[in-house]
User: Which sequence fits this backbone?
C-alpha cells in the first residue's frame, strides 16, 4: 500500500544507503537463499453433495414411567439398574397376599350367587306347580285368597332370582377387579429398552395415596433426532422432496466427536407450522440404533447433542483440495496458489463440505488451481517465485 514519506526520511534513507554501500566494499554480501521448493496438489472437480447442517438432540421413540398402581409393600426388585430389559420382563413384586384374599372372596361370592340362582329357580318351579294345582281344583275346593297367595309366591321367587342374578354379576365384576389388582402386584416392562435406577427400595410401602413412580424405561432402537430448520431451508427441502417424489428424505447424524456423519436415517415428521417467533420449523429423523462391538453397546442415547445434516439437492461438481492446504487469516480462509511463472498467490476461498475420504481422480479444476499441499510457504512468500518440488 503506498505511504507518504517526508524530506528528513528521504535524507536519512540516503545516508543509510551510503553506509550500506560503504560497508559493502569491506565485506562481501551474503549469498541469497534460493526460493523454497514446495509440494503442490492439483484440485479435481468431484461431484460433491451439498447439505443443510443443523444442531439437534436425540430422543427416545418410547418413554414409559413405571408406577405402583396398588398399595402394598415392595417385596422384590428383579432388574439390574441401567440394563436393557425386554418387553414383559419382571421388574417389581408387591406383596400379593391381600389381593389373593380378595380374589378368593370374590370367587366365593360368585359361587354363592350361582347357588342362590339355582335355589330360586327350584322355588319358582314349586310355586308355579302349586299355582297350577290350585287353578285346576274344582270350584269351591280352594278360595280365591289361596290362589292369590300362590301367585304372589311365584312373583316373590322371581324377584329373589333376579336379586341372585344381580349378585352373581356383581361378584363376577368384583372377581375381575380383584384379579386385575392382583396382576398389578407383578410389575413387568411394557416396552423393551434401557431401564433407569429404582427410586423405591425393597420394604417400602408404595401406592398408598396415588400411583408411586418406581423407575422409567426408554426405548433405544430406533431413536429420534429432533432439529429446527429455518423456513428458507424448509422451502428448498420441500422442493427437492417434491422433485424426487419420495415420501421420506435421508438425514445424517453424528454425536460428540464422531468424524463425519456415520448414522443414517430418514425424516419421518415435519411440524405442521413454522414458529413465528424464531422463523424455524421442527423436523424429526428416525435412526436405527443397533448394538455394536463386543459389549453390544449402543452408540446413541436419548438426550445427546447431535450434529445433523440433510442433503440439499443432487451432487454438483466442485473443486476438492486437501484440508491441510486451507489456512486461516484475517481475511478468512485462503489457499496459496502457484500461478504462471511459479509465482505464489494468496487466494481467499469459501470452504464447503468436508469429504472424509479422498475422492477418486476426477476432472482437473480450471485455470491453474495448483495449491500448496504438505509444505505451504510462509506468508512472506506471497508474490514470490517458489518452484514445485519434483
Assistant:
Amino acid at each position: 500500500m503506498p505511504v507518504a514519506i517526508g524530506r528528513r526520511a528521504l535524507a536519512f534513507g540516503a545516508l543509510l544507503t551510503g553506509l550500506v554501500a560503504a560497508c559493502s566494499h569491506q565485506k562481501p554480501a551474503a549469498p541469497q537463499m534460493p526460493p523454497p521448493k514446495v509440494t503442490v496438489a492439483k484440485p479435481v472437480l468431484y461431484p460433491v453433495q451439498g447439505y443443510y447442517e443443523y444442531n439437534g438432540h436425540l430422543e427416545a421413540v418410547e418413554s414409559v414411567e413405571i408406577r405402583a398402581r396398588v398399595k402394598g409393600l415392595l417385596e422384590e426388585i428383579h432388574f439390574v439398574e441401567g440394563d436393557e430389559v425386554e418387553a414383559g420382563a419382571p421388574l417389581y413384586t408387591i406383596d400379593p397376599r391381600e389381593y389373593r384374599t380378595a380374589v378368593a372372596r370374590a370367587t366365593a361370592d360368585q359361587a354363592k350367587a350361582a347357588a342362590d340362582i339355582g335355589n330360586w329357580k327350584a322355588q319358582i318351579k314349586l310355586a308355579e306347580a302349586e299355582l297350577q294345582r290350585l287353578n285346576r281344583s274344582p270350584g269351591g275346593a280352594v278360595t280365591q285368597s289361596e290362589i292369590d297367595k300362590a301367585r304372589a309366591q311365584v312373583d316373590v321367587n322371581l324377584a329373589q332370582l333376579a336379586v341372585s342374578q344381580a349378585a352373581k354379576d356383581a361378584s363376577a365384576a368384583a372377581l375381575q377387579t380383584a384379579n386385575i389388582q392382583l396382576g398389578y402386584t407383578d410389575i413387568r416392562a411394557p416396552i423393551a429398552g434401557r431401564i433407569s435406577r429404582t427410586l423405591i427400595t425393597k420394604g417400602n410401602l408404595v401406592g398408598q395415596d396415588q400411583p408411586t413412580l418406581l423407575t422409567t424405561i426408554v426405548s433405544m432402537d430406533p431413536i429420534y433426532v429432533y432439529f429446527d430448520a429455518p423456513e428458507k431451508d424448509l422451502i428448498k427441502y420441500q422442493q427437492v422432496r417434491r422433485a424426487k417424489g419420495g415420501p421420506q428424505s435421508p438425514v445424517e447424524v453424528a454425536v460428540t466427536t464422531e468424524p463425519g456423519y456415520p448414522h443414517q436415517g430418514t425424516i419421518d415428521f415435519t411440524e405442521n407450522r413454522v414458529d413465528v417467533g424464531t422463523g424455524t420449523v421442527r423436523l424429526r429423523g428416525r435412526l436405527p440404533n443397533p448394538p455394536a462391538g463386543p459389549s453390544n453397546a449402543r452408540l446413541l442415547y436419548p438426550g445427546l447433542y447431535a450434529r445433523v445434516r440433510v442433503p440439499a439437492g443432487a451432487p454438483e461438481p466442485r473443486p476438492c483440495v486437501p484440508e491441510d492446504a486451507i489456512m486461516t487469516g484475517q481475511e478468512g480462509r485462503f489457499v496459496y496458489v502457484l500461478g504462471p511463472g511459479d509465482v505464489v498467490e494468496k487466494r481467499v476461498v469459501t470452504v464447503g463440505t468436508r469429504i472424509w475420504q479422498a475422492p477418486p481422480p476426477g476432472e482437473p479444476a480450471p485455470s491453474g488451481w495448483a495449491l500448496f499441499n504438505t509444505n505451504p510457504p510462509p506468508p512472506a512468500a506471497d508474490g514470490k517465485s517458489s518452484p514445485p518440488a519434483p
